[in-house]
Specification:
164 residues, hypothetical protein PF0899 fold, 2 domains, four-stranded mixed sheet, 37% helix, elongated
């Protein structure tokens, strides 16, 4: 591993020190600082954090690829979200993703999170009927579940079974 790190250290920047292990700590180069890009990446990261929080809150499996909408109220945020959409999709594990303006409709059955005062994210949660419950009178709402979950057992019946 150290030889790989040394190769990465020397090759791109043309450093002439013998090894990264004995080189001086690098100093920041002010010319490389770009405040606009840093602000855009911060917006992208807060959007990703909101989507991942929704996935965790609704216990979506890592292999699921839910549909995602990012709603932006102004054109600046709309262009930022559109630019970074492939990165957001990759880091959130989403399927079809769309950036929409404030007037576009989002289908029912979506979980929503507010990123900031101009951006909201929606994750589509598909609801389906797993099987007919013989324990409880219809409609047993405990059998309604997200399509991305793997459990098909009625939670009310399972908890009753565990308490015995």
């Amino acid at each position: 591993m150290p030889s790989y790190a040394d190769g990465c250290w020397r090759a791109p920047a043309g450093y002439t020190t013998e090894s990264i292990m004995i080189a001086a700590y690098p100093e920041a180069t002010p010319e490389w600082t770009n405040e606009a890009v840093e602000r855009e990446v911060a917006i992208m990261m807060s959007t990703i954090q909101a989507i991942r929080s929704l996935r965790a809150q609704y216990k979506l499996q890592a292999k699921s690829r839910p549909t995602l909408w990012i709603r932006c109220k102004n054109t600046e945020r709309l262009s930022i979200a559109d630019t970074y959409l492939p990165t957001i999709m990759a880091l959130c594990g989403s399927g079809t993703s769309t950036v929409i303006n404030d007037t576009a409709e989002v289908p029912p059955g979506c979980a929503m999170a507010i990123v900031d005062d101009t951006t909201m994210v929606y994750v589509h949660l598909v609801v389906r009927r797993s099987f007919l419950c013989t324990t409880h009178p219809p409609p047993c709402l405990h059998h309604e579940e997200m399509a991305n979950r793997s459990s098909l057992v009625c939670t009310r019946a399972w908890l009753t079974f565990l308490r015995r």
